[in-house]
């Protein structure tokens, strides 16, 4: 019989499980009664580009989740000598937005269209005009309306629309429910009612009827719940979905499923007005909790919410660190060709630190990290590029600084819009693998945005930890607001590293950004001609 406090908590089910399906990795985190991680599991996966569509198969979702949970169970056994058979609560999150359409029998009607797909320009433009709010290319309603405009045969059979998190939650609980943060990336929500905007729903239905679709959109969308609410319980079928060997017991309560943007806000304690966070992974995005409405719609700004329903201005860039990953892999291959086996983390840290020796403006180099289309800069598809004039200083240091500056350039273009609106930020937190090497990307981001950037050990725990905290809030929130709960129970006394904008680096970034803007026609030409 186990006697260690952590093992005892595991045996007694006084733990909380958070699962997140990110763009490149499925991760699970188990937290104990003190809300700190006690075990982890992960499984890598990759999107596929099939018929000009970025997608993941539902088989990949199932097998990836099962492998991730199996590794979590192994970690529990190895670390604590305990068997994971029950949890106090659980929750699932995933990459936001996208399009999953099911018929009445629960069959997927068309391959999952992820947030990375931008072939919805016509729908986004029409909906933004008719609804009076910016509707981004990747939002679920844009995908659905584009399918209507394209007269895709599956539209007449759609019975349910949801996100990836909503799909997995349904498989675990049998409930079609979505957290308000993720729901706000399907269709606009009303901050007063904490539900889909009724007036916009009516306008959408009238618009869809003009194209022969008369099914009310609300009947297709998941039910909206805010943080702290119970969103069903883990069913026996849900246990089989996660763990076909049936080690887990059914019955655990679940919190509303959320998007990775929401879990990033929770994991960085950025859910109060005038706080924000930047998440850098396959995509890069900033979330700023607003004090009030903006003056009007902006194509660069998505209006979404925190998991508690507070309004958020989101700057979402489809392209983040993937191009950096590709170049790090090339340099790793070069080291291998020289007979040196180097850990991936060492390759990254070496390259990132080399950038600190660069010229302030990256030596005249310009780098575009666009593997996918980028709506903020009007690019329908991605074409990564590195540009330089004959007199530019092509060094390793300048090359890497250009790549890192390029990862933040489009984000800065979107953040400029918020700043012109008078939006104020007291605290900006950064998280994601891009910030794993201390003192590098954090400083560049501070220089790019002209604001102090904080990074902490807690942020490195990432989205699945944020999801576990939301499940814990459902279980032990005790009637407090999410902001008060996180501050009192999770982040009190957290150690944070603060980077102030460096004047020389900021001036160098401005020079880089001007070249970046000037060279955007080259990017568009590359899409048109290659």
TrEMBL record:
Keyword Mitochondrion applies: no
Sequence intervals crossing the membrane: none
Name this polypeptide is given: ATPase
Family from the record: Belongs to the FGGY kinase family.
Domain Carbohydrate kinase FGGY C-terminal: start-end pairs: 277-471
Occurrences of domain Carbohydrate kinase FGGY N-terminal (ranges): 16-236
Domain of life: Bacteria
Gene3D superfamilies per UniProt: 3.30.420.40
Presence of the UniProt keyword Transferase in the record: yes
